[in-house]
């Protein structure tokens, strides 16, 4: 799976959709592949699952959070966050370490635009249940330097500010 192309990734996602054991195998590769490329390719395939499989992602929430927080790979971080955005977050699902991670990534100009936009979405999913956290997120978004934002981050920021 080290040299997967888009067509290969889509075939893997189709197989994972049809075979839950195979889906579990892909998750095992995300969390413990031979190398970052293998883990990233497995995560990439999982991002192509149909929306109907979003509920299956919930079982892997904590492990995906651990990958997002712990990986030095920007690609694997972004892909794990893409999967996490697809999951619904209840008030009981908030992990303070992950919320802190997202808030710090939102404000980090060294972080990629993709990760920053995903961090905004994930922070909102966690904060929306608590008025004090919503207020903190709103303040963070308002303090962002517009000049340091790409169009995607700026769009995501403005969209979430409207929701807040």
The secondary-structure class comes to mainly alpha
The helical percent reads: over 70%
Poorly predicted tracts of residues: none
Distance between the termini: 41 Å
Total strand count, please?
0
Described by strand count, sense and barrel closure, the largest sheet is:
none
Number of domains: 2
Which features does this protein show?
single chain, 164 residues, mainly alpha, 0% strand
Describe this structure in words.
- With 164 residues, the chain is mainly α.
- The chain folds into two domains: 88 residues, no CATH class; 74 residues.
- The chain has ten helices and no strands.
- The model has no long low-confidence stretch (mean pLDDT 91).
Topology:
Layout: H1 6-18, H2 20-32, H3 36-46, H4 54-57, H5 61-70, H6 74-85, H7 96-107, H8 113-127, H9 131-142, H10 151-163
Structure described in brief:
This protein is an all-alpha fold. 70% of the residues lie in helices and 0% in strands.
């Amino acid at each position: 799976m080290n040299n997967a192309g888009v067509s290969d990734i889509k075939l893997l996602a189709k197989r994972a959709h049809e075979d839950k054991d195979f889906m579990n195998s892909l998750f095992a590769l995300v969390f413990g592949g031979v190398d970052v490329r293998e883990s990233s390719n497995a995560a990439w395939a999982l991002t192509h699952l149909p929306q109907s499989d979003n509920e299956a992602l919930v079982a892997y929430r904590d492990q995906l959070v651990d990958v997002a927080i712990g990986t030095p790979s920007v690609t694997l971080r972004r892909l794990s966050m893409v999967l996490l955005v697809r999951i619904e977050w209840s008030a009981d699902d908030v992990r303070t370490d992950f919320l802190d991670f997202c808030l710090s990534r939102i404000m980090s100009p060294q972080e990629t635009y993709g990760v920053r936009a995903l961090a905004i979405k994930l922070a909102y999913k966690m904060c929306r249940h608590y008025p004090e956290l919503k207020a903190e997120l709103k303040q963070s978004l308002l303090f962002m330097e517009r000049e340091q934002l790409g169009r995607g981050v700026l769009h995501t920021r403005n969209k979430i500010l409207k929701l807040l």
